[in-house]
Amino acid sequence: MTKADITEPFLKRLRVSTEIDEEDERAIRNLPMSVKRMAGGEPIVSLGDRPSACCLVVDGFVLRSKIVGTGHRQILAFHQPGDVPDLQSLFLHVMDHDVSALGNSVLGFIPHAPLRELIKRRPNVAQALWRDTLTDASVFREWICNVGQRDATSRVAHLVLELYTRLTAIGRADGRSYSFPATQALLADAVGTSVVHMNRVVQELRSKGLLDFDRGRITLLDEARLREIADFDGLYLHLDPSL
Amino acid sequence: MTKADITEPFLKRLRVSTEIDEEDERAIRNLPMSVKRMAGGEPIVSLGDRPSACCLVVDGFVLRSKIVGTGHRQILAFHQPGDVPDLQSLFLHVMDHDVSALGNSVLGFIPHAPLRELIKRRPNVAQALWRDTLTDASVFREWICNVGQRDATSRVAHLVLELYTRLTAIGRADGRSYSFPATQALLADAVGTSVVHMNRVVQELRSKGLLDFDRGRITLLDEARLREIADFDGLYLHLDPSL
DNA sequence: CGAATTCTTGACGTATGTCAACCTTGGTGG
DNA sequence: CCACCAAGGTTGACATACGTCAAGAATTCG
């Protein structure tokens, strides 16, 4: 994998997000970056850390989570290639949650200093990154609605559609299915249910012919009905910045 | 109320957040702003809008919310004096949720153009504002945990402590109590329970001598126990930027 | 091939939602 | 100043989605 390949998913996202000129792209490609492979579950940064680099997802998935008082884990977000899950560490110095690899992943670590320099020198890039953190926030808001208002079936359908929509946008969905190396326990942590109940939901969705979830692959069998059940409207993803 | 009074809560926040010099402060004070009084419940911007100004909370409270498919409302955030709840509209052009006044409030509307200009000219201010939107996101994450993992009693205690901590930080708490003009129905929308159950919880907290909630005023009667019940740790508020 | 995950099932308890009525309070107008 | 009204608060009865526990079956992986 060449260095160009590594920044490509990132550049691709920034390009749709704002006007990025040749000079901007060059500056991004010239960022110092140490590439690292990580296994599923491996921690990237943790609660209380004061990271000195940000982590660009190159391949695979990254998740953000928090452990609550009961010892249970709440997953807060999933990140795909092109995302920088801990960009916030540039300005919020202490981590308020954990970041870890979902499946086997390839990550690029960019030290804070050159990233700060980039932001100072290239206002377009700064704006694109800021925008990115704002859409992150928008996704968090929708997750609040998800866990706060919808029942378990609806929540799962919603999550599945969110991932599908975002992966499609970066060309990583494979027709109506996509690879997502999660266990049912992990999905349960994401939507705030127990493993047992998650299993009931998965079976219900399967038996109704709505979706399949097997060996780390999610397949949408009836997207239209899923959208109904999920109460899904992708507006909050802000995928089309021209709007 | 003079113009200086109006920007003061805002400046106060920015000062602790980053290095803001005299020049920065002057630029902020010179922002064009139209001040408006709003009654409780009045909409400020709504889902689908494309606002051309941002709204600074000068006095009172502002809330952000979303209506889900069932018709129920999920409240996503409460904002206090000094906050700019819809700063995101600078970069995400279509609103993905509603913003409205909680009680009677005073708001300052700042057109996008001069705000963009400010951000371009004054990188310190830009950074402070970016940081602000990042702590917003951090609060969203904690709300996800709240509705996803904690029981109703714990959720209410957590919300009450969050508000208390943030209001104390800007000097708007009155000892161990603070004004918060909410009904039980509104609290229910914030923590994702029914009104009936919210009432049960409020009575439980009252009868155990933990807190009181009456006529728009919340009083913490036993902060230590509340913190336990709430599983509250204020780290996520990022109130001390030196950390 | 064995061991560890992951998935699945059933029985059971409970937190919380819904419905429907009633009570309290604060504000308004006569 | 009282009568009234609307909004908010309170109650009880009942239904249910979901959690927990515990065991067993099916995968996956070394």
Task: Throw out a few tags for this protein.
DNA-binding; globular; 243 residues; three-stranded antiparallel beta sheet; 21% strand; homodimer; Arc Repressor Mutant, subunit A; four-stranded antiparallel beta sheet; 2 domains; 8 helices; alpha+beta; Jelly Rolls
Topology (elements, then pairings):
The structure is a homodimer of 243-residue chains.
Chain A: H1 3-17, H2 22-29, E1 34-38, E2 43-45, E3 53-59, E4 62-67, E5 73-79, E6 98-101, E7 105-111, H3 112-121, H4 123-149, H5 152-169, E8 177-179, H6 184-191, H7 195-207, E9 211-214, E10 217-220, H8 223-230
Antiparallel strand pairs in A: 1-7, 2-6, 3-7, 4-5, 4-6, 8-10, 9-10
Helix pairs in contact in A: 3-4, 5-7, 5-8, 6-7
Chain A binds a DNA duplex (30 and 30 nucleotides) through residues 151-152, 183-185, 193-197, 199-200, 202-203, 215.
InterPro entries (chains A, B): cNMP-bd_dom (IPR000595), cNMP-bd_dom_sf (IPR018490), Env_Response_Regulators (IPR050397), HTH_CRP (IPR012318), RmlC-like_jellyroll (IPR014710), WH-like_DNA-bd_sf (IPR036388), WH_DNA-bd_sf (IPR036390)
Organism (chains A, B): Bradyrhizobium rifense
Keywords (chains A, B): DNA-binding, Transcription, Transcription regulation
Structure description:
The structure is a homodimer of 243-residue chains. The first copy, chain A, is α+β, with helices and mostly antiparallel strands and 243 residues long. Chain A has 8 helices and 10 strands. A 4-stranded antiparallel beta sheet of chain A has the order 2-6-4-5. In chain A, helix 6 crosses helix 7. The model of chain A has no long low-confidence stretch (mean pLDDT 95). At the A-B interface, helix 4 of A face helix 4 of B. Chain A binds a DNA duplex (30 and 30 nucleotides) through helix 7. Chains A, B: InterPro entries: cNMP-bd_dom, cNMP-bd_dom_sf, Env_Response_Regulators, HTH_CRP, RmlC-like_jellyroll, WH-like_DNA-bd_sf, WH_DNA-bd_sf. Chains A, B: Pfam families: cNMP_binding (PF00027), HTH_Crp_2 (PF13545).
